[in-house]
UniProtKB/TrEMBL annotation:
This is Galactose-1-phosphate uridylyltransferase. It comes from the Bacteria. GO terms for biological process: galactose metabolic process. Belongs to the galactose-1-phosphate uridylyltransferase type 1 family. It comes from Dissulfurirhabdus thermomarina. Its EC number is 2.7.7.12. Residues 71-175 form the Galactose-1-phosphate uridyl transferase N-terminal domain.
Length: 333
């Protein structure tokens, strides 16, 4: 029988429709059609992007030239612009303000054909360092209240370029989705005097049916009420509300679990389109006892259609217990 499952953080209900029979092996992933031609993110084409705001490379490298390992540039076609004032206004019952923000592209590798799942551990650590360094720098701008880091992989997940990259958008408001999550964790904390994510980690480790992998510092789980098949969360075991507060041993531990998770997903669902999002506390907030930063990875395996848009319920044909077991059984190098 199908099940309604309630997300314990924001109260959203999800339908786990087992009768739809979508076992992991049932998903047909359409291969990405290779698009040839010029790539502005490839090494040697630095002059075709806006000037870099951050790059890692050998000492003495000249900015905006080859030799980098990870490079961050402003988006050439930004969703928001960094120059100007917010200029908040009202038009009767309606509110508006200027589209002020920062929109940057993290070019994850100089190699056009390399995917995140295939990158060495130390290189992925650099990518996480780039996220941290750009977040710390942009936090100095008092206009910004939240920074969202995300990755779209594959055209079905919204990627317009094949070259491996992620994006960062600094916003003048806290997004409703994040505020909903923060409010949900505060309600739980006010009632139980514990962090809901810490409780989730304790219960998942105890039951051990939705755990994908873990190490001393981090754990990857398929959440109890996932929006999509094979949705996976990566969480620090030690409570922390802000990603930039991570220390170097933490970056190493995060990369270990994150990279193993990505390799298991890639082995189970080769080159599946996916999105991942870094959920962290709003800028300039003191440590929150009720909120716990994490990364959410959502493969693009199902369609959002009329029922989902009309009701807010999501139908997931693969129970997370089955998805986690399948991922654990994958043999990876």
């Amino acid at each position: 029988m199908p099940e309604f499952r309630r997300d314990p953080i924001i109260g959203r209900w999800v339908i786990i429709a087992k009768e739809r029979g979508k076992r992991p092996s049932d998903f047909v992933i359409q291969p990405e059609r290779r698009v040839g031609g010029f790539c502005p993110l490839c090494q040697g084409n630095e002059n075709t992007t806006p000037p870099e705001v951050l790059a890692y490379g050998p000492p003495g490298r000249v900015p905006n030239t080859p030799g980098w390992t990870v490079r961050v540039v402003p988006n050439k076609f930004p969703a928001l612009v960094i120059e100007g004032d917010l200029d908040k206004q009202g038009e009767g019952i309606y509110d508006k303000m200027n589209g002020i923000g920062a929109h940057e592209v993290i070019v994850e590798t100089p190699d056009h054909d390399q995917t995140l799942a295939g990158m060495p551990h130390d290189h992925v650590v650099q990518i996480f360092h780039a996220y941290r360094d750009r977040m710390v720098d942009l936090e100095r701008d008092q206009r910004f209240r939240y920074i969202m880091v995300f990755k779209n992989f594959g055209r079905a997940a919204g990627a317009s370029l094949e070259h491996s990259h992620s994006q960062l958008i600094a916003l003048p408001v806290v997004p409703h989705r994040m505020q909903e999550e923060i409010n949900g964790t505060r309600k739980y904390y006010d009632y139980k005097e514990r962090c809901v994510y810490c409780d989730i980690i304790r219960q998942e480790r105890s039951q051990n049916v939705r755990v994908v992998c873990e190490n001393e510092g981090f754990i990857a789980i398929c959440p109890y009420a996932p929006l999509a098949p094979f949705e996976t969360w990566v969480l620090p075991k030690r409570h922390a509300s802000s990603f930039p507060s991570l220390d170097e041993p933490g970056f190493q531990a995060l990369t270990g679990v994150f990279l193993e998770t990505m390799r298991r997903l890639d082995r189970a669902l080769p080159r599946v389109p996916y999105n991942y999002m870094l959920h962290t506390a709003p800028l300039r907030t003191p440590p929150m006892e009720h909120y716990h930063w994490h990364i959410e990875i959502v493969p693009k395996l199902t369609m959002i259609a009329g029922f989902e848009w009309g009701t807010g319920f999501y139908i997931n044909p693969t129970p997370p217990e089955e998805a986690a077991r399948y991922l654990r059984e994958m043999e990876i190098d």
